[in-house]
Design goal:
It is a single chain. This protein is mainly β. It has a single domain (2-57), classed as Roll (Ubiquitin-like (UB roll)). It is built from one helix and five strands, in the order E-E-H-E-E-E. It has one helix at residues 18-24, and strands at residues 2-5, 8-11, 32-36, 39-41, 56-61. Strand 3 and strand 4 (39-41) form a beta hairpin. The termini are far apart.
Length: 66
Protein backbone atom coordinates (compact mmCIF):
# COMPACT_ATOMS: atom_id res chain seq x y z
CA UNK A 1 0.00 0.00 0.00
CA UNK A 2 1.32 3.44 -0.90
CA UNK A 3 1.00 6.00 1.92
CA UNK A 4 2.16 9.57 2.36
CA UNK A 5 4.15 9.23 5.58
CA UNK A 6 5.33 12.49 7.15
CA UNK A 7 5.20 14.19 3.76
CA UNK A 8 6.95 11.47 1.72
CA UNK A 9 5.26 8.75 -0.32
CA UNK A 10 6.38 5.25 0.60
CA UNK A 11 5.27 1.66 0.06
CA UNK A 12 4.13 -0.44 3.03
CA UNK A 13 3.29 -4.11 2.52
CA UNK A 14 0.92 -6.09 4.69
CA UNK A 15 -0.14 -2.97 6.61
CA UNK A 16 -3.87 -2.35 7.11
CA UNK A 17 -4.05 -0.43 10.42
CA UNK A 18 -2.15 2.29 12.23
CA UNK A 19 -0.95 -0.30 14.77
CA UNK A 20 0.50 -2.48 11.99
CA UNK A 21 2.20 0.54 10.41
CA UNK A 22 3.85 1.51 13.70
CA UNK A 23 4.95 -2.09 14.24
CA UNK A 24 6.43 -2.30 10.73
CA UNK A 25 8.35 0.93 11.38
CA UNK A 26 9.50 -0.37 14.80
CA UNK A 27 7.88 2.59 16.56
CA UNK A 28 6.49 2.21 20.08
CA UNK A 29 2.89 3.51 20.14
CA UNK A 30 3.32 4.97 23.64
CA UNK A 31 5.84 7.54 22.41
CA UNK A 32 4.01 9.01 19.42
CA UNK A 33 0.92 10.82 18.24
CA UNK A 34 -0.61 9.78 14.91
CA UNK A 35 -2.74 11.75 12.49
CA UNK A 36 -4.44 10.19 9.45
CA UNK A 37 -5.80 12.56 6.79
CA UNK A 38 -5.66 15.50 9.22
CA UNK A 39 -7.56 13.61 11.97
CA UNK A 40 -5.83 12.67 15.22
CA UNK A 41 -6.14 8.96 16.00
CA UNK A 42 -6.53 8.06 19.67
CA UNK A 43 -3.99 5.51 20.87
CA UNK A 44 -6.73 3.04 21.85
CA UNK A 45 -7.98 3.18 18.23
CA UNK A 46 -4.65 2.32 16.53
CA UNK A 47 -5.81 -1.28 15.97
CA UNK A 48 -9.21 -0.16 14.63
CA UNK A 49 -8.04 2.66 12.36
CA UNK A 50 -7.89 1.18 8.85
CA UNK A 51 -5.51 2.68 6.32
CA UNK A 52 -6.30 3.06 2.62
CA UNK A 53 -4.14 3.53 -0.45
CA UNK A 54 -2.96 7.16 -0.62
CA UNK A 55 -3.74 8.07 3.00
CA UNK A 56 -1.65 10.83 4.53
CA UNK A 57 -0.15 9.76 7.87
CA UNK A 58 1.79 12.00 10.22
CA UNK A 59 3.69 10.43 13.12
CA UNK A 60 5.06 12.78 15.76
CA UNK A 61 7.49 11.69 18.50
CA UNK A 62 7.12 13.06 22.00
CA UNK A 63 10.25 14.83 23.17
CA UNK A 64 10.93 15.72 26.77
CA UNK A 65 13.51 18.02 28.20
CA UNK A 66 14.06 21.16 30.03
Amino acid sequence: MKLKLNGTFSEHREVTTVAELLQSLKIRPEGVAVEVNLEIVKRQDYFKCKLKEGDSVEIVNFVGGG
